[in-house]
Design brief:
Aldehyde Oxidoreductase, domain 3, Aldehyde Oxidoreductase, domain 4, 7-stranded mixed sheet, 5-stranded mixed sheet, alpha+beta, 25 strands
């Protein structure tokens, strides 16, 4: 190998650090009309009337669009339940009611302020469990209930296992929303290029964006082009459409170029979030540490629209038993419509919520059995050929145990794992180390027709002079483009400089699927490798071209009663050790050191892999400790970074150790598997276990804010005092 495994520099790095890179908001040109959204600003209400008279009379306002202007006023990645502009009713505070087009930003804002909407308020449903009850007010009147989905998985007989177990523990957990907080808020432009409507923005799936936009406007797909500018982060938040339909609608109606750039507040209110989950767990084990049963109820708040909620729920329900082969499993996952902000894809896709509970329960079982938490994990962890909760064998390449062993090795040498914490006598500052493991699917699941297509064109006669690689693959900042070029160059045996990549135009690049589910290196990379090999076989003596569609091993939907099926074709595995410092007087938690070990199959670009792990850990620190997204009565209370506390460099530990294992995935190109989401999966549980090691307190609600930690410490101390009094008697 000459390029695979090398830390090749990203071609966009210089432009990004110098400010030359052009993100969607940088594309605005003179002569474009500016768009401004009229948001509902209320959680649930009937629209009685919309009066745009004063707005249209304002200087500079060109048009005001409402639902009547949208040819097909529905969209959604799975269920088409979300309107471009609301008609009849609004279902959450970020609903779009009208769209103003004007000559200047100031005129657009003034026009939006002058649009008068008369509402009749309706009952607001803010709690997912309450929303599921019979008689609850319906978020969508055309549905029989607010239950968007139910996933049921059954394996063995949990009740019998509970009756025979030596230890049975129960606990409830609560996770919260999380804001994607990508660097570039939602923005874009639209214009005509000849007779084709062009929407230029940032997203994660060119061809899916084009498909949805074409349907909204009732256009043929070949009459519409989607292009991506530089993408300032995504993390799942750009899977759903946000400003794209607004741009397309305005330019299509007016035949003039338009632009929109949401403020940070508009972005936070207007796009999807990570799902909050309420989880009830009941786990059981024998004295020898064998986990014999896991029963879980998961209830997710899906918000006002479906987005990918049902798919996130499938992942969460599947991973409710973590990385462990357990003979008896009963899991029920539910997701409900509410009048809260819609929830959708977010890095981890349901796995962090489910495995926060699962990993916490495994450590609790170990302590109840007087076992080392590492030992109970060794005893129960998946191995090659292990049977999943869906009763299907795991895909080959199970790296769970090697990852755990390497993590324990690093934790022992670097963090002193297993030794008493170094706390000063009488000090209110306590230290502890926690471990946790996790897994997540790579790629699309549950029977989705997974594929990626690439085209390779070789130019030259006796030798390859240059290569054009075409693949519709979004680079959201994760370095996908350089990795795909590395795979192409390695396969063809040419320098990286020979590869010209065309990846950001739906008309010029074939469909490689979404830059999500940690799939692009595996799926896009495999399509590139196969297309490169096919073109090379045709090359000698003349130019050659090959287009290849790669399809991985088939997955299946789950049986609705038992959950039986083949859910995924590949998994990523991780284990982490985290050292924290807890101030027992204030509840403040600081993460001091992190060891994060990953089986990546093959690190195509080692620096990019390490960067993905480190960046993901920063997001994990926020999810676990600081990012307390709050909604009250359907209103977002944290719409600014001054109130929604992202972790800064001062919140991150200086000692972060990403450790890469390369246990080849049989499907991935050169053995590579995805890694982008994995560091987030077990992190919150590792922190919770570390807090317990330091203080004896269990925190069961995310984020673990100082108030919650302090309350947990007070509860633990009170319980300890009761136990001491009981012992003395």
């Amino acid at each position: 190998m000459t390029l695979i495994g090398k830390s090749v520099a990203r071609p966009d790095a210089l432009d990004k650090v110098t400010g030359e890179a052009r993100y969607p908001a940088d594309l605005v040109r003179d002569g474009m009309l500016f768009l401004k959204v009229v948001f509902a600003r209320r959680a649930h209400a009937r629209i009685l009337s919309i009066d745009a008279t004063r707005a249209l009379a304002h200087a500079g306002v060109v048009a005001v669009f409402t639902a009547a202007d949208v040819p097909y006023n529905r969209y959604g990645l799975i269920d088409e339940d979300q309107p471009v502009l609301c008609e009849g009713k609004v279902r959450y505070s970020g609903d779009r009611v009208a769209l103003v087009a004007a000559l200047t930003r100031e005129a657009a804002q003034a026009g939006a302020n002058l649009v008068h909407v008369e509402y009749e308020d309706l009952p607001v449903i803010c709690d997912a469990r309450a929303a599921m009850q019979a008689g609850a007010a319906l978020v969508h009147e055309d549905r029989p209930s607010n239950v968007l989905g139910h996933v049921r998985i059954r394996k063995g007989d949990v009740e019998s296992a509970f009756a025979q177990a030596d230890v049975v523990l129960e606990e409830s957990f609560q996770t919260s929303w999380q804001e994607h907080a990508y660097l570039q808020p939602d923005a874009g432009i639209a214009y005509y290029e000849g007779d084709k409507l062009v929407v230029e923005t940032a997203g994660q799936w060119l061809h899916e964006d084009r498909k949805q936009l074409a349907k909204i406007l009732r256009l043929y797909e070949d009459g519409l082009i989607v292009r991506y500018a530089k993408i300032g982060g995504a993390f799942g938040g750009r899977e759903d459409l946000s400003v794209q339909p607004l741009l397309a609608l305005a330019t299509w109606k007016l035949k003039r170029p338009t632009a929109i750039a949401w403020s940070r507040e508009e972005s936070i209110v207007g796009h999807t979030k990570r799902h909050p989950y309420a989880i009830r767990s009941k786990w059981a084990a024998r004295k020898d540490g064998k986990i014999v049963a896991a029963q879980t109820e998961l209830i997710a708040d899906g918000g006002a629209y479906a987005s990918t909620s049902i798919e996130v729920l499938k992942g969460a329900t599947l991973f409710a038993s973590g990385t462990y082969e357990i003979e008896n499993i009963s899991s029920d996952g539910y997701v409900a419509y509410t009048n809260n902000v819609p929830c959708g894809a977010f890095r981890g896709f349901g796995s962090p919520q489910a495995q926060f509970a699962a990993e916490s329960m495994v450590t609790r079982l170990a302590l109840a059995l007087n076992m080392d938490p590492a030992q109970i994990r060794r005893r129960n962890m998946y191995r090659e050929g292990g049977i999943q909760p869906t009763q299907a064998p795991l895909p080959a390449g199970v790296g769970a145990v090697p990852v755990l062993e390497r993590c324990l090795q690093e934790a022992t040498s670097r963090l002193g794992y297993g030794l008493p914490p170094l706390n000063g006598a009488g000090s209110h500052i306590k230290r502890g180390v926690g471990i946790a493991s996790g897994m997540k699917n790579v790629g699309y699941s549950f029977g989705f027709p997974e594929q990626a297509t690439a085209t390779v064109e070789i130019y030259g006669e006796r030798q390859i002079d240059r290569v054009t690689l075409r693949i519709g693959a979004a680079d959201c900042g994760q370095g996908a483009h350089v990795v795909l070029r590395q795979i192409c160059a390695e396969t063809l045996g040419v320098p990286l400089e020979c590869i010209d990549l065309i990846a950001e135009d739906s008309q010029e690049s074939p469909n490689a699927g979404s830059a999500s589910a940690s799939r692009m290196t595996l799926m896009g990379g495999r399509a590139v490798k196969d297309a490169s090999e096919a073109a090379l076989a045709r090359f000698p003596g003349s130019d050659a071209k090959a287009t290849v569609q790669f399809r991985p091993p088939r997955t299946t939907p789950l049986d609705p009663q038992t959950g039986a099926g083949t859910p995924n074709y590949s998994y990523g595995y991780t284990s982490q050790a985290v050292e924290v410092e807890v101030d027992t007087q204030t509840g403040l938690v600081r993460v001091l050191r992190i060891i994060s070990v990953h089986d990546v199959g093959r690190a195509v670009n080692k620096q990019q892999v390490e960067g993905q792990i480190e960046g993901c850990l920063a997001q994990a620190v926020g999810y676990a400790l600081t990012e307390n997204f709050q909604i009250r009565d359907g209103k977002v209370l944290t719409p600014y970074f001054s109130t929604y506390l992202l972790p800064t460099t001062l919140d991150m530990p200086t000692d972060v150790y990403p450790v890469i294992l390369e246990l080849a995935d049989p499907v991935g190109p050169y053995g590579a598997r995805g890694v982008a989401e994995m560091a987030l999966i077990p992190f919150a549980a590792a922190v919770a276990c570390a807090i317990h090691a330091a203080t004896g307190a269990w925190v069961t609600q995310l984020p673990m804010t100082p108030e919650r930690v302090l309350r947990a410490i007070e509860v633990a101390n009170a319980s300890s005092q009761v136990s001491e009094r009981a012992s003395s008697l």
